[in-house]
Amino acid sequence: MAFGLLTDRAQVRHVNRRPATEGTTVDWPAWVPAEVVESLKAGGIERLWAHQAQLADHAVAGEHCAIATPTASGKTLAYLLPVLSATAVVSSRAVAPAGNDDLRTRLGVANHTALYLSPTKALAHDQYMKSRALAPKGWLSTTLDGDSTQAERRFAKEQANYVLTNPDMLHLSILPSHSRYQRFLGGLRYVIVDEAHRYRGVFGSHVANVLRRLRRVCEFYGSHPVFILSSATATGITKWGARLIAEQAPIAVVDEDTSPHGERVDVLWQPIDTPAHEAADLMAELVRDGMQVLTFTPSRSQAELVALRAGRKAPGIASYRAGFLADERRGIEKALSEGELCGVAATNALELGIDIAGLDAVLISGFPGTLASYRQQTGRAGRKNRPALSVLLAKEDPLDAYLFENPSLLFDKPTETCIFDPYNTHVLGPHIAAAAQEVPLTEDDRRYFGPTMASLADQAAEAGLLRKRPTGWYWVRPDRAVDSISLRGSGNRQINIVDEASGAVIGTADASTADRTVHKGAVYLHKGEHWLVSEYSPQES
To answer: What's the pLDDT score for residue 521?
Structure first.
C-alpha cells in the first residue's frame, strides 16, 4: 500500500509530512585508537555524523554531557566511541586513566571500565548485541540483570570492562555488594544513562539517588566516572540532567541532528469502529502489503487481542508485553529485528530503542499520555533512511479529541521537561540509610544528598537504623537497607503463572496487579491462548 492511498481514507483527520534529509559527516577524532577505527569500519561505519563526534569529544574531555537527538540518529555510537576507546584497547593511545592510580594498581585494574544503564532489560540486551558487533575482538562485555546466570554475574564482577544493566540491578545487587565489584567500580570511566527522559516522577527521584550512591562508592574506590545521558525526546536536559547526576552546573548538551533521515508521514486517524479493532485491521492490511508494522496498545490484554484479530487476516503477527518469560521476549525481539515477524502488537514495553531495522510503520491505539512517549513510539519506524509511516488512532478521550483539533501540539511543540525531586524526604530518607550501609555517611555527603541529609540521618539514628559517631553515621542492623526501597513504586515481586497439568511456568504477573488479572476464575490470555485460573496463591510465588 502506498502511503498516499492510506492518507485518502475517510478516517484521516490530519497528515503531517516531513521530507527526507541528508547528513553531515566528519573525520575520526585523533584520540580514537586505530584498533577501534578499524573495528568500526569493519562494521560498515566509515565516518562519523558531526553530532556523534561532538558528544564523544565532550566525554573524552571529562565533561558530563547529554545527547538529545531524535530516534535513529546514531546516539549509540556517539557514547560508544569513548567507551570503546577507553575499555576495548589496552594501549598507550587509549584515554588516560582517571582516579587514584595507586588504588587502581592494588585492585588489579588493567583497563578502564564502563557501565550502561537502561530502564528495561530488553534495551540493555539490544545494546549489548549492537556494541559487540562494533567492538574489537576480545572486548569483555556482558549484560547483568535478574535473568543473568551465576556465571554471567561472576564474569561481570571479575572480568567485564563493559556491563549493561538497569537501575534496579545497580540498586539491589551491585551497590549493596560493592566490595565484590571493586575491580569494576575502581576502574569506572564512563556511566551511560540511556533513555534518560524515563527517569521522571517518583521513579526518577529514586534513580537520581541511586546515581548519587554510585558516585560515592566509585569515589571510595578512587574513580570519578564521566556521566553521558542519552534521550531522543529530552527538553531542558542541560539542567534536569545535571540534577539527575548531582551536578550543580548545567551539563553540556548536543541536540543538533546531523544524520540523514527518510521521508516521514504522520497520520491522525479517527476510528469508526473501536481503536483496537481498527488498529488490528489496519495492521493486517499493511502487513499484507509487505510492510513490517509495530502496533502500540494501552494494555496487555489489548496487545493480545489486537495480535489475535490481525493474525487472522495476515501471517507473521505476534504479541509482546510484560509478563512473557525472558526467552519468549528475546525470541520475539530477535524475530522482529531480523524481519522474521511481519508485525507485533505491543504495550510500551517495546517503546524504547531496540534497533528494529526496516520497520516501516507504527500504529498507536490512543495517545500514550505524553509527547515524549508519542515521539518515542513513532520513532520506531524509519530506520536506515527508509520512509516511515505512523498512525495515531484516537480513543474516546477528551485529550485525544483536543489533540486532533490542534495537531500542531503533536508535531511542533517541544516535549515535556523531566520533573523529579531527589530531595523528597520520603524518597531521600531510605536512600540515605542505604548509602550509610554501603559507605558510612559524613558531612561531605551533603554535596550528593542536599542540606537536609544530616537531619534525616539523625532521624534514622533515633529510629535505630543508623548510629551517629564523631566520624559520621553508620548502619547498625543485620538486614539490607535497600530491601525496603522499591524504585518503581509498586514493588518488583512477580507472581508466577503455572500450568496445572505440567507444572511449567508459562508467564508472570506483577504482584501489584495480580489480584485483578489472575485471580481465581480469571481468564489469562497468553500469546493467543486462553487459560482459566483455577487457583490463586500469591504467597507461594
So the answer is: 80
